[in-house]
Known about the structure:
- Strands 2, 4, 5, 6, 9, 10 and 11 form a 7-stranded mixed β-sheet that branches. A 4-stranded antiparallel β-sheet has the order 1-3-8-7, with no helix packed on it.
- The chain has no helices and 11 strands.
- The protein is an all-beta fold.
Amino acid sequence: QVQLVESGGGLVQAGGSLRLSCAASGRTFSTYAMGWFRQAPGKEREFVGTISGSGGSTAYAASVKGRFTISRDNAKNTVYLQTNSLKPEDTAVYYCAARTGGISSRPYEYNYWGQGTQVTVSS
Protein backbone atom coordinates (compact mmCIF):
# COMPACT_ATOMS: atom_id res chain seq x y z
CA GLN A 1 0.00 0.00 0.00
CA VAL A 2 1.27 3.46 -0.93
CA GLN A 3 -0.17 6.70 0.42
CA LEU A 4 0.44 9.90 -1.52
CA VAL A 5 0.06 13.46 -0.28
CA GLU A 6 0.40 16.42 -2.65
CA SER A 7 1.28 19.95 -1.64
CA GLY A 8 2.48 23.19 -3.16
CA GLY A 9 -0.58 24.30 -5.08
CA GLY A 10 -1.94 27.82 -4.92
CA LEU A 11 -2.90 30.95 -6.79
CA VAL A 12 -0.35 32.41 -9.19
CA GLN A 13 -0.39 34.97 -11.99
CA ALA A 14 0.12 33.94 -15.58
CA GLY A 15 3.81 33.55 -16.29
CA GLY A 16 4.55 32.52 -12.74
CA SER A 17 5.84 29.27 -11.29
CA LEU A 18 4.93 26.72 -8.65
CA ARG A 19 6.66 23.60 -7.42
CA LEU A 20 4.31 20.80 -6.51
CA SER A 21 5.43 18.03 -4.22
CA CYS A 22 4.07 14.55 -3.63
CA ALA A 23 5.23 12.69 -0.55
CA ALA A 24 4.85 8.93 -0.51
CA SER A 25 4.73 6.45 2.32
CA GLY A 26 6.46 3.10 2.27
CA ARG A 27 9.95 1.72 1.88
CA THR A 28 9.78 0.75 -1.78
CA PHE A 29 9.22 4.16 -3.34
CA SER A 30 11.97 3.67 -5.90
CA THR A 31 10.16 0.68 -7.37
CA TYR A 32 7.21 2.81 -8.45
CA ALA A 33 6.90 4.92 -11.54
CA MET A 34 5.16 8.17 -10.67
CA GLY A 35 2.80 10.29 -12.68
CA TRP A 36 1.26 13.72 -12.47
CA PHE A 37 -2.23 14.27 -13.82
CA ARG A 38 -4.64 17.18 -13.69
CA GLN A 39 -8.36 17.72 -13.89
CA ALA A 40 -10.12 20.97 -14.63
CA PRO A 41 -13.81 21.52 -13.82
CA GLY A 42 -16.02 19.74 -16.33
CA LYS A 43 -13.08 18.03 -18.02
CA GLU A 44 -11.58 14.58 -17.89
CA ARG A 45 -8.42 13.86 -15.97
CA GLU A 46 -5.44 14.37 -18.25
CA PHE A 47 -1.84 13.27 -18.23
CA VAL A 48 0.84 15.83 -17.37
CA GLY A 49 4.09 13.92 -16.87
CA THR A 50 5.63 10.70 -15.62
CA ILE A 51 8.97 9.56 -14.26
CA SER A 52 10.47 6.11 -13.82
CA GLY A 53 11.44 4.63 -10.48
CA SER A 54 15.10 5.47 -10.96
CA GLY A 55 14.33 8.90 -12.37
CA GLY A 56 16.14 8.04 -15.58
CA SER A 57 13.10 8.22 -17.85
CA THR A 58 10.50 10.94 -18.13
CA ALA A 59 7.68 11.82 -20.50
CA TYR A 60 5.41 14.84 -20.78
CA ALA A 61 2.17 15.90 -22.35
CA ALA A 62 2.69 18.13 -25.37
CA SER A 63 0.80 20.94 -23.66
CA VAL A 64 3.38 21.23 -20.86
CA LYS A 65 6.61 20.06 -22.49
CA GLY A 66 9.31 22.66 -22.08
CA ARG A 67 7.44 24.39 -19.24
CA PHE A 68 7.03 21.63 -16.64
CA THR A 69 9.71 19.37 -15.21
CA ILE A 70 9.16 16.24 -13.17
CA SER A 71 11.83 14.95 -10.79
CA ARG A 72 12.11 12.71 -7.77
CA ASP A 73 14.21 12.24 -4.65
CA ASN A 74 14.01 8.59 -3.66
CA ALA A 75 15.85 9.25 -0.39
CA LYS A 76 12.97 11.55 0.60
CA ASN A 77 10.19 9.46 -0.97
CA THR A 78 9.09 12.55 -2.88
CA VAL A 79 8.29 13.42 -6.47
CA TYR A 80 8.16 17.00 -7.71
CA LEU A 81 6.52 18.88 -10.54
CA GLN A 82 8.16 22.19 -11.33
CA THR A 83 5.69 24.31 -13.29
CA ASN A 84 6.99 27.39 -15.12
CA SER A 85 5.44 29.91 -17.49
CA LEU A 86 2.01 29.03 -16.16
CA LYS A 87 -1.05 29.82 -18.23
CA PRO A 88 -4.69 30.20 -17.20
CA GLU A 89 -5.43 26.94 -19.00
CA ASP A 90 -3.13 25.16 -16.55
CA THR A 91 -5.72 25.80 -13.83
CA ALA A 92 -6.78 22.43 -12.41
CA VAL A 93 -6.51 20.06 -9.50
CA TYR A 94 -3.17 18.31 -9.83
CA TYR A 95 -2.84 14.69 -8.72
CA CYS A 96 0.15 12.46 -8.29
CA ALA A 97 -0.13 8.73 -8.81
CA ALA A 98 2.04 5.64 -8.42
CA ARG A 99 2.26 2.42 -10.37
CA THR A 100 4.44 -0.64 -10.41
CA GLY A 101 6.31 -1.05 -13.65
CA GLY A 102 7.44 1.56 -16.14
CA ILE A 103 6.27 5.03 -17.03
CA SER A 104 2.78 5.45 -18.42
CA SER A 105 0.49 8.24 -19.54
CA ARG A 106 -2.67 6.20 -18.91
CA PRO A 107 -4.41 7.03 -15.63
CA TYR A 108 -6.07 3.60 -15.41
CA GLU A 109 -2.63 1.99 -15.17
CA TYR A 110 -1.91 3.71 -11.87
CA ASN A 111 -2.70 1.91 -8.64
CA TYR A 112 -2.44 4.70 -6.07
CA TRP A 113 -3.58 8.30 -6.09
CA GLY A 114 -3.22 11.33 -3.88
CA GLN A 115 -6.03 13.67 -2.92
CA GLY A 116 -4.90 16.46 -5.24
CA THR A 117 -3.73 20.05 -4.90
CA GLN A 118 -5.41 23.03 -6.54
CA VAL A 119 -3.46 25.21 -8.96
CA THR A 120 -5.15 28.39 -10.09
CA VAL A 121 -3.53 30.66 -12.67
CA SER A 122 -4.97 34.15 -13.06
CA SER A 123 -4.69 36.14 -16.27
